[in-house]
Specification:
213 residues; alpha/beta; two-stranded antiparallel sheet; 6 helices; 9 strands; 36% helix; globular; binds 5-O-phosphono-beta-D-ribofuranosylamine
């Protein structure tokens, strides 16, 4: 059973996709141990509570400085001792010590086709605003392992989504979530939990196709 901790900051629709997939059996061998958020008002924490999953608040603003937050956050994660950490719309930089200690066991979902529209400043709706500004015809989502960079870790999977005429950032965000994020993240978690995906020497190793049962 893969002990999993999910880190969130907002609405938690990706968390919900994971919970629904565990419920309907499209994710097997996984136990969501806890949900961590930096935002006490995150709807994602409500979703966790609705599913009987402990919510933990870890907010940088509750600490005298970022370094003491990083130490406390890393200590808490070590106490939870997950096999997998999932960043599902988590807007806080992961401490380098945590990346080191959980190397190869942290994944992130990003709402674009990395290496496009990613890195510092590219999160949430801003990504889709930049996609529309640039006029690209195809965007999508990427699930990747987390390393010490920002959105630079080994890519696990991507899914393309067409930009439609008249799209707003909101309509595009919803399509990318619905058609890509909420599909890719559960598939990646199930693949890792069942030994189809791993990362070694910075390269994703696929034993079988990610979406195979
Ligand atoms: C998603 O668009 C995700 O790709 C990005 O942040 C957003 C989180 O949405 N990292 P939610 O909290 O899962 O609804």
């Amino acid at each position: 059973m893969l002990k999993t901790v999910v880190c969130v900051s907002g609405g938690g629709t990706n968390l919900q996709a994971i919970l629904d997939a565990v419920e309907d059996g499209s994710i097997t061998n996984v136990k969501i141990e806890a949900v961590i958020s930096n935002n006490a008002g995150a709807k994602a924490l409500q979703r966790a509570e609705n599913n009987g999953i402990p919510g933990i608040l870890m907010a940088p603003k509750d600490y005298p400085d970022r370094e003491s937050f990083n130490v406390a956050f890393t200590e808490e994660m070590c106490r939870l001792a997950p096999d997998l950490i999932v960043l599902a719309g988590f807007l806080v930089k992961i401490p380098e010590e945590m990346v080191r200690r959980f190397d190869g066991r942290i994944i992130n979902i990003h709402p674009s086709l990395i290496p496009s529209f990613c890195g510092v400043g590219y999160y949430g709706l801003k990504v889709h605003e930049k996609v529309l500004e640039r006029g690209v015809k195809v965007t999508g989502a990427t699930v990747h392992f987390v390393n010490e960079g920002m959105d630079e870790g080994p890519i696990i999977a991507q899914k393309a989504v067409t930009v439609e005429e008249g799209d707003t950032p909101e309509s595009l965000q919803h399509r990318v979530m619905e058609q890509a994020e909420w599909v890719l993240l559960p598939q990646a978690i199930d693949a890792i939990a069942n030994g189809r995906i791993s990362v070694q020497d910075g390269k994703v190793r696929c034993v079988r196709r990610m979406e195979e049962a």
